[in-house]
Each structure stands twice: as C-alpha cells, then as structure tokens.
Amino acid sequence: MKHSTHSSKASECAGLRGFTLIELILVMAILTIAVSVTAPSLSNFFRGRTLDAEARRILALTRLGQSRAASEGVPVQLWIDAAQGLYGLETEPSYETTDAKREEFKLDGDVQIETIAYDPTSMDTLPGSTAPTPVNTMPANSARQNSGPHSAFPKLKFLPDGTVDQSSPQMIKLTGRDGFSIYVAQTRNRVNYEIRTRTNNN
C-alpha cells in the first residue's frame, strides 16, 4: 500500500516538472515571432558596427601615416581603390621603391568607399546639409602623380613636416548597404582627419 502511494506521488511530481507538447509548441511560436521581429534591428546594428569599424581603421591609418612620415622623413600615402574595395598605407614610391611596413586592407562587402574633394571655403559643413556642394569626386589625385602600383588611385598624402598634402581629398565617404554614411574628413585646421556623420559637425 505504501509503495502504491509513493509511486502515485512520484508520477504527480514528474508531471508537474515536465512540459506538455502544446506548451512546447507555444514557446517555439513565441521564440519564432521574437526572432522575426528583432532580426532586422540586429542586422542593422551589426552593419552599423561594421561601418564604424572601417571608419576607425581608416582614421587609425591616417594617424599612422602622419607618424611614419614625420619619423622616417619621407611622404607616406594612404591609397584607395574604390572599385576593388581596397585601401592601404605605404611610403611614396618615388622616395622608396619598396616599403616593408606597407599595409593593405579590404572593405567589408556591405561597405562602399569614395574620396571627395570639397570647396575649402565650405569645409565646416558636411554633405547632406545645405552646403557645401562637391567640387568633384576624385577618381585619382590631380597632382603629384608618381610611379607605383597604386599611382592611379586617390591618395591621402602625409608630408614629413606632419601636414596633409594639399592634393589630398578632404573627405573619405563610407556608405553601408542601408545608405547610411560616415565620413573621415579633414579637421577645420586641416592638419589631420576625424570621423564625422551627417549629424556631427564637430
């Protein structure tokens, strides 16, 4: 008799601890709905992080380029191949035919890059606001072309005195698949670059 009572109580406890098939189906349905609702937001979040990471890497390369130019006493250039989604840093080939410290990076497939030259009198305002109007989108530097595998590409050139060469584009525009853009733009004093967005003019 005691054995029967004990077995009955054990069965009741097991039933309380378990889930019915209907409960499991309901839980799966709720999870499916939650994932379908949050997936677009998560996707946009990670794409935004990718765009920001590319901008920060380019900004870091501008800092490295200036540092190398000053310490090594030769011009250093950050070249950009928009068609292939490549960019890199190296010394100007006319000064050094080979650069053991050269670096090359490939853009994430969802990010597009372009270099833009703006009217210097309008550098305080970003694209997307009332001014300025682009002077040109640079397919290549218009001045001081030099030999080398990247001679045809636009370049940000850093001189040994720590300044940015006047032939350098004022802005690099990075655009994600959703159309949002981040700019690596010259600062107002034009001695280096900084990250900006449409809503950040500082």
Quick tags:
202 residues; alpha+beta; five-stranded antiparallel β-sheet; 9 strands
Describe it.
By secondary structure, the chain is an alpha+beta fold. The chain has one domain: 3-Layer(bab) Sandwich (minor pseudopilin epsh fold). The chain is built from two helices and nine strands. The chain has a five-stranded antiparallel β-sheet, with helices on one face. It has a four-stranded antiparallel β-sheet with strand order 3-2-1-6, covered by helices on one side. A hairpin with a 6-residue loop joins strand 8 (181-186) and strand 9. The chain is elongated. It starts with a helix and ends in a 6-residue tail after the last strand. Residues 120-125 and 127-145 have low confidence and may be disordered.
**Mean pLDDT over the residues:** 76
Q: How large is the radius of gyration?
A: 28 Å
Look at the helices and sheets and give the structural class: alpha+beta
Q: Stretches where pLDDT falls below 50 for ≥5 residues?
A: 120-125, 127-145
**Main sheet?**
5 strands, antiparallel
Q: How many domains is the backbone divided into?
A: 1
Q: How are the strands of the largest sheet arranged?
A: 5-4-7-8-9
N-to-C SSE series? HHEEEEEEEEE
CATH homologous superfamily assignment:
minor pseudopilin epsh domain
Per DSSP, the total helix count is 2
Say what the CATH topology is: minor pseudopilin epsh fold
Class in CATH?
Alpha Beta
Strand content: 15-25%
| Terminal CA distance | 84 Å
Q: What's the CATH architecture?
A: 3-Layer(bab) Sandwich
Total strands: the figure is: 9
The helical percent reads 25-40%
